[in-house]
C-alpha cells in the first residue's frame, strides 16, 4: 500500500525553529515528487512547494519562498518541511502529498495522491 | 501567476439533486486540472485528474469536464456522504494553485 506518514502535532513558541517530516512507503520514493500543502484554520488549500527526492531539486510558491525550506533524505524515504523562525501566522495543518509519474511516458504530473494524514502546527506564546 | 476561481462558494441541495461546481483559470491550462474532495476534519481526496478522468475507486456519480479556462465538476445524484468542500487545482506549471473551494451541504 502506498502511504505517506507524517510526524505528530507540534506546539511551538514564536521565533522557534521546527522541522516536520513525511515518510513514504510502498513505492519507489525517488520516482515521485513530494509537495507540501498548507491549510490554515477554516481556510482553503495552499500549495507551498515540491521536491524531487532523487536529487533534492525544489520549487516553491512565491508566497512561501524564503519562509520555509523543503528537503528530503532519500536514504530513509523521508521529506521535510522546516522553519527557522516560526510566527503565529504559521499555525496551520500541513499536508504532504505525492505527485504522479507516468512510467510509460516518463512524464510527471502534479496532481496529488496519496496525501499524508497531516501535521498540526500551533505557534503561540 | 494563474489564478483559480470557483463558483459558487457554497451550495445547499437535496439528496438526489444534480450539483454542478464551476472552476475558472485566469489563463488557459489545457486539461491540467484536478478536483479534490475534503470532508470535515479529513484529508483531501483526489476525485478527478486531467479534467475528466475519474480516480480509481471514486463513485461514477462524480464527473468532470472542460478545457482551457473553464471546468466543471458534476455530482449526478447528491448523496449524504458527499457533504464536503470541493477544490480544483491547476497543475500545468508551478505554482500548482488550488481554487478557494466550494462547500456542499444537504438541504
TrEMBL record, chain B:
<protein>
    <submittedName>
        <fullName>IG c499_light_IGKV1-27_IGKJ3</fullName>
    </submittedName>
</protein>
<dbReference type="InterPro" id="IPR013106">
    <property type="entry name" value="Ig_V-set"/>
</dbReference>
<keyword id="KW-0391">Immunity</keyword>
<dbReference type="InterPro" id="IPR003599">
    <property type="entry name" value="Ig_sub"/>
</dbReference>
<dbReference type="GO" id="GO:0005576">
    <property type="term" value="C:extracellular region"/>
</dbReference>
<dbReference type="Pfam" id="PF07686">
    <property type="entry name" value="V-set"/>
</dbReference>
<dbReference type="InterPro" id="IPR050150">
    <property type="entry name" value="IgV_Light_Chain"/>
</dbReference>
<dbReference type="GO" id="GO:0002250">
    <property type="term" value="P:adaptive immune response"/>
</dbReference>
<keyword id="KW-0472">Membrane</keyword>
<dbReference type="InterPro" id="IPR013783">
    <property type="entry name" value="Ig-like_fold"/>
</dbReference>
<feature type="domain" description="Ig-like">
    <location>
        <begin position="2"/>
        <end position="89"/>
    </location>
</feature>
<keyword id="KW-1064">Adaptive immunity</keyword>
<keyword id="KW-0964">Secreted</keyword>
<keyword id="KW-0393">Immunoglobulin domain</keyword>
<dbReference type="InterPro" id="IPR007110">
    <property type="entry name" value="Ig-like_dom"/>
</dbReference>
<keyword id="KW-1003">Cell membrane</keyword>
<dbReference type="InterPro" id="IPR036179">
    <property type="entry name" value="Ig-like_dom_sf"/>
</dbReference>
<dbReference type="GO" id="GO:0005886">
    <property type="term" value="C:plasma membrane"/>
</dbReference>
<keyword id="KW-1280">Immunoglobulin</keyword>
<dbReference type="GO" id="GO:0019814">
    <property type="term" value="C:immunoglobulin complex"/>
</dbReference>
